[in-house]
Design goal:
By secondary structure, the protein is of the alpha/beta class. It has 2 domains: 3-56 and 393-399 and 424-447, Roll (Urease, subunit C, domain 1); 59-375, TIM Barrel (Alpha-Beta Barrel). Helices cover 30% and strands 22% of the residues. The strands form 4 sheets. Strands 1, 2, 3, 4, 5, 15, 16, 17 and 18 form a 9-stranded mixed β-sheet that branches. Strands 9-12-13-14 form a 4-stranded parallel β-sheet. Strands 6-7-8 form a 3-stranded parallel β-sheet, with helices on both faces. Helix 5 (164-177) crosses helix 8 (212-229), helix 8 (212-229) packs parallel to helix 9 and helix 9 runs parallel beside helix 11. The longest helix is centred in the middle third of the chain and has 18 residues, at 212-229. It is globular and about 65 Å long. It binds (4S)-2,6-dioxohexahydropyrimidine-4-carboxylic acid. The site of (4S)-2,6-dioxohexahydropyrimidine-4-carboxylic acid (DOR) has 11 residues, from loops.
Length: 448
């Protein structure tokens, strides 16, 4: 039996109401004991001892929304590189979106992802299956079969189901399976060829805009359909004030809805498309800030923060969307949408804590037990350090400073709008299913 002792850390586990200095003992792939006294007697027996003094120890982060690109786009990311990026970012579970090639619309493709994740993945990979075959919005996938193959939700991410009739049908099936429908809410007819938020910046740059209404129309439609069918609905990467208000209202009415927000929508505004210095015209049309949904306005950000504070927003998800250099180093209009986000998420989010916009326990909740509720318990009770639960642990230094350098990313996707930024807050070690999958070199680790 392999034993790992993490001692002297500041343990925060919101599920257990724990916020204390103490130790954590892991045996094989499970949490064995937690707290001050419980672990001390085991010190002599541990195979690996990790000194966490001065560091925070919390449940492993769960990312409800990322793109691992395999199968089909291995030049942009693989399950191996994407899950190593996850480990470096403190994530012990990632839910991967089905917009691969082929898409995850059959048992065979879901089996393939799980097989590769088991043999090459650094952290737990939970696949999200397509709603419709080929993500074409016409014919439903074999939902029973995909559920048996292990998907934790259904989504046509990036190509939202346009027909309300097909979406209704999908929700009726999925309700019986107890899983959530995850929707990337975008009325494609309205967003049309838009490439950034519709507003003064898009006007100034001469770029076609995507209005907030393109998202909100679909959020409103989906809420009505969830009310009609009783299906669980999870709204992906919410980005506008109007969406937050719709979701808040739906929750009050008891509609089974949850939602997530990304770090970039919490931290960056549409101005970022003009580069980091709005007076430097040469940096305009920065494709690293091209993402869908687009970066919005300061007003939207304050609504998102309020949504976090009052519990309307359930989770923070990265929407990690790695792309090749070729797909980003081109004209803004033809560049791919997406930000490589797994490795910068935590450092970026800590700036909200340091600025006292949200507190640390809230941040940890949004990264752990609250997304775990969306995933369900099929893969064990995730998002907590309770004894007997899977040993998924993240250890971080809330004050350690570091500079984002995409050349050091494990991810193949170097597309980050945070390049060169000084961040305060760094993941120091990640333990997935009892194994240390990432450890910063400054951490003191002793082995028997
Ligand atoms: O920015 C995005 N990138 N938004 C999406 O909806 C898809 C994603 C991707 O797959 O690159």
């Amino acid at each position: 039996m392999a034993k790992l002792l993490i001692y002297g850390g500041h343990i925060i586990d919101p599920v257990q109401g724990m916020d204390t200095i103490g130790d954590l003992l892991v045996k094989d792939d499970k949490i064995a004991a937690i707290g001050a006294a419980a672990v001390k007697k085991d010190t002599a027996g541990a195979d690996i001892i990790l000194d966490a003094s001065g560091l925070t120890v919390c449940p492993g982060f769960i990312d409800l929304h990322c793109h691992l690109r395999q199968p089909g786009f291995e030049d942009a990311e693989t399950i191996a590189t994407g899950t190593l990026a996850a480990a470096r970012g403190g994530f012990t579970t990632v839910c991967c979106m089905p917009n691969t090639q082929p898409p995850l619309d059959t048992k065979a493709t879901v089996d393939y992802v799980r097989q590769v994740a088991d043999s090459e993945g650094y952290v737990r990979v939970l696949p999200v299956g397509c709603i419709t075959k080929g993500r074409k919005g016409v014919e439903l996938v074999e939902m029973d079969e995909l559920t048996k193959a292990g998907v934790i939700a259904f989504s046509d991410d990036g190509e939202p189901v346009a027909s309300p009739r097909i979406m209704r049908l999908a929700m009726e099936y999925i309700r019986r399976l107890g899983l959530p429908v995850i929707d990337h809410c975008e009325d494609k007819d309205l967003s049309h060829d838009g490439v950034m938020n519709e507003g003064w910046v898009s006007a100034r740059l001469g770029l076609k805009g995507i209005p907030a209404a393109a998202e909100e129309i679909t959020v409103a439609r989906d809420i009505s359909l969830a009310a009609l069918t009783g299906s669980r609905l999870h709204i992906a990467h919410v980005s506008t004030r109007g969406s937050v208000e719709l979701i808040r209202h739906a929750k009050k009415k008891g509609i089974p809805i949850t939602t997530e927000v990304t770090p970039h929508h919490l931290l960056l505004t549409e101005e970022r498309v003009m580069g980091t210095d709005p007076d430097d015209h040469l940096s305009f049309y920065d494709t690293s800030a091209k993402v869908n949904p687009p970066l919005r306005t300061r007003d939207d950000i304050s609504a998102l923060i309020r949504g976090i504070k009052d519990g309307t927003i359930d989770a923070i998800a990265t929407d990690h969307a790695p792309h090749t250099l070729v797909d980003k180093l081109c004209e803004f209009n033809i560049a791919a949408f997406g930000i490589s986000g797994l490795e910068t998420a935590f450092g970026c989010l800590m700036s909200l804590v340091h600025r006292e916009e949200i507190d640390l326990t809230t941040l940890i909740s949004l990264l752990t037990w609250r997304p775990a509720k969306v995933v369900g318990t099929r893969y064990g009770e995730l998002g907590t350090l309770k004894p007997g639960c899977p040993a998924d642990v993240t250890i971080f230094d809330p004050n350690r400073e570091w500079v984002v350098d995409s050349r050091t990313f494990a991810s193949k996707g170097k597309n980050t709008p945070f390049e060169g930024q000084l961040l305060r807050g760094k993941v120091m070690a990640t333990i997935s299913r009892g194994k240390i999958v990432y450890c910063d070199e400054v951490l003191k680790v002793r082995t028997k």
